[in-house]
Amino acid sequence: MNLAQLIDPITDGDVEWVTKLMKLEALDEPRRSFLKSMSTLDVSACPGSGKTTLVVAKLAILARHWKSRTQGICVLSHTNAAREEIEHRLGGSEIGQRLLRYPHYIDTIHGFTGRFLASPWLRSQGIPLTAIDDELTYAARRKALKPWEYAGMKKAFESAFIKVESLRLRTVDFDNPLTGLSLKFGAHTDTYKNACKAMAHAAKTGHFCFDEVFVLADALLVKEPEVASALRSRFPCVLVDEMQDTRYEQVNILSKVFPRQDPDVCVIRVGDPNQEIFDVKVELPEPFPDQSSTMEIASSFRFNQSIASIANPFAYLPITGGLVGLRQSGANQPAPNTIIVFPDDDVSNVLDAYGQLLIQHLPADVRTSGVYAIGAVHRLENDKPEHYPKAVEHYWAPYQSEVNKPSFKPRTFSEGVHIARRYVARDATAALGVELIASCLLTLVRLAFPRDAIVARSRSHQCVEQHLAGRAGVVAAYRGWLERLLFSPAGITQAEWDAAVASGLMDLAADLVFSDQLLAAADAKAYLAWSTAPLVEDPGDNGGALLNTYRFETGSENVNIRLSSIHAEKGKTHAATLILETYNRTHFVNKLLPWLEGKTSAAKRPNEAAKKSMMLMYVGMTRPTHMLCLAMRKSSMGEGKAEIKRRTVLQQAGWAIIDI
């Protein structure tokens, strides 16, 4: 059955029902139209539009009327945000529980591909799926070679400016795993032969990198094309969230399994094409959005109209009628969106000037909900004097760029504990801290007991809990360590770590895989060594200062300014945001002055070179709820009459300007 046969038409009564159930704000016509739609559709939703909440509301309506016990709704994204929103908004309701179980399916695109396509193909070949995890796969490849073979191969690759870790399968011919790869080494060389041996061993023992699941999935669809039609029958309604972030190999699989032109499957894709800030090198098989079936949601609950008007010119795909800010300032005057002009050769006072503005214009309770300074470039590499300021690190020397990477892994377990405790101190929930401790525990298991690999999931804590299901004693020990590591008031000292904590964590890792710490590999020893807490600006703050956070104080007032990259903050909400001038081929803010000034030339279709910069600025500008700031070099303002004219134009565009 298709969607029209599985549920009755969605009515205004359904919309009112879900509005009351989820305590939603009054819904305008575009949002109501989205909730009532029952056909293939692309939804272009602006930042702060409540997109994920709206997706969950639609799922609730669909689940309310769902007639089949064997066909379900498939919800796919890059994160588990939809599942978490269902648990948060609907977890206690019957509808929420219904959505979270069979026949419905909610997962990441990787998870769906691995479960329904890659794993069946491997089983058909008699290969066990051991792990879909980059680190475990690298380790399996290393173990296939003798130490000197691996060292020689790695050195040869590095001399050709290639990372051994970048090797990926492009074929399911595991006897010839380098087929399809363009390398500088001939098939007769030891380097080529060893690379083949390493990759073949890992694949045949069931170890695969995350992105290699798409190669396996494609093999199944070629060999068994009826699998795609079976999945369409199983899931006649598919909803893909954060569509703008999908890469070619993901869309390639989705378009083969759920082609949008198939009348028997309803494919709803939701995202914001103006936030496509991750590199897309090739055109997608089914580009998003499809202009023939697109709906816009252009109003944001996050910010007011003053921020919306400033950000709107940076929408690379123009928004019909312009970006609309719905947040009201209440009785207070809105905080002034401010350009901080600094000397070209000195950024030392930029964060202090920002801190002063925050204390002057934002109440303390608003400031504590998160104020940020973010840059398009955050790592300081290949620095030259003319690039200054090149990166976020120039504004605050202790800044650690690695912490903001999605792939960030602490060098030691104890470093992970220090960082996790700061997450707990910083955030409203302990989720990030718990996830980091669980990730460190799984890393310890991999290093200590490499033969007892645990199949990695997208969420480490969930993986540990599932692996311990039915083992009440070990579950209690795991949760006891979480509580001690994250919440002990005095923290963990080196003496405690060396005397008991390191050994206790090794015992827990051993219990996790039914082993004994006496059998642990030597590789684990270095990972369990003590590390001091990462540097913070104020070492006298009893370790309470937050990682990558600059503390500004004046009199009795203070504010913690968190530093990050624009990429890392995509999808997040700030109370206030300062976008820092940085350098990549040219200075970022300076390059975008025509759009800041609202020049008519900027209204024309920008070229591809400006596309990424515009999207980065758009993402950065649409983070804050209360105040937006820019840090700009003095030379960008010009001199004499040109400077006077530029300042006037910027003020007319809605900016206040201060000089330091």
UniProtKB/TrEMBL annotation:
Keywords: ATP-binding, DNA-binding, Helicase, Hydrolase, Nucleotide-binding. Residues 24-310 form the UvrD-like helicase ATP-binding domain. It comes from the Bacteria. Pfam families: UvrD-helicase. InterPro entries: DExx_box_DNA_helicase_dom_sf, DNA_helicase_UvrD/REP, P-loop_NTPase, UvrD-like_ATP-bd. ATP binds at A45, C46, P47, G48, S49, G50, K51, T52. This is DNA 3'-5' helicase II. It comes from Vreelandella neptunia.
